[in-house]
Amino acid sequence: MAPDIKDLVYSTPLFDDHDHLWSVRDLMQEEDDYRSIAGNSYADLLVATGPSFRKSPLLQDGGKEHRKAFFHAWRKSRNTGFCRAVEIACKDILGLDFTEENADAVSDRIRGLKERGGNRFYQDLLEKAGIEWVILDSINRPDQIQQGAYPDAVRYAYRDDFLLTALNRDTILQREEWWDRSIHKLSDLVDGLMQSMSGCLATQAVKAVKIGVAYNTGLHFENPTRHDAETAFNHMMSVRKNEKSPRPIERAFGRYTHPTISQLSGEELKPLHDYLTHAFVQRATEEGLPVQVHTGYLVGVNQDLRRMNPLDFVPMLLHYGSTKFDLFHAGWPHTEELAAMGKHYPNAWLSLCWAWAINPVSVGRALDSWLDSVPYTKIIAFGADTKHPITAYGYAVQAREGIARVCESRFARGDADESLSRQMIESIMFGNGRELYGIWA
Ligand SMILES: [Zn+2]
Fold this sequence. Notes:
- By secondary structure, this protein is an alpha/beta fold.
- It is 50% helix and 10% strand.
- The radius of gyration is 22 Å and the shape is globular.
- The protein starts with a helix and ends with a helix.
């Protein structure tokens, strides 16, 4: 008898290699309204609203006008993966359709579920989603890993993109405060970063480092000399506020989008940024930690989508041949480029985190294509990449639907026999993540 592939996919636990789940405390403090579970769909609502979104009540903080605009835009975009995941979660977890009429009832039911306590609420949802382990973004201070702040399933990724793409003295002054040390020269900065990493690693809960600078500077890194990095650092530290007229960062940097300003150009700072990133990756390599890399689509609206091509990262894969890199988000829409990288570089893993929600059909085709070209032990099929556990549940269901369709089709076509199908499903959903991140208990 043919195996029930769908059953198999739905009964296999998920390893979630990338998430931003709120701490239990933040979750309990969050206002329980329909917007709290909307996840990434907000961006689709802004796009549906069109260029006038800036004047739309959608950007207001709640209220009647906001609700009207929210569901008006929702009805125009509920076809997308982002929105469908929320509708699935709302129906399954709260027993309600995600509609304007039900907005108050949605809020009431979330509140009702939370009455059982934050930990229980979390545990129940992760269990229902079948998520067994989570690698949580972003930790860069040990006090962020407090006992009981997150469910037991959570481990952490060290990430500090604002340091790796530091724009001005203020960033450095803030790190002096965080790290309780003076930073006068580049070596002080690198030592501080290493000390900070050591502090977090001592918790034994950090299982990866993360580079998310595709949002700030892109994926292309050069290998600057220490002298060039020092020059850039000294220049940055010598410029004080108002010495040159501050310019909005978009103008000063072109493709940079820090919500701050700099008096130096992106080109002037690049040697510093690239030097710090190399130091960061080298430390991860020494510690045997995988390096997570944001590739592909950028969250929100009006980002510069030209800086997300995973192929830009190839020089780093070549330079750090013994480092394990987990390349995120299917590189979407560059899924075939990512397939080539997964096929070609022994140190590259391919992750579908967030990708099922971005474009379920395209990502289903990508998984099918990867399973035709890349060893299945190098593929991680899920990461929710959201904040609310109810939304994470929706993303998990969406991923299972997609994985099941692909695996059913491969079995039916004769591309995978029963034994291979079983192995692939267990590996891409769970085993590969567990092995790459070294989480056994
Ligand atoms: Zn993320």
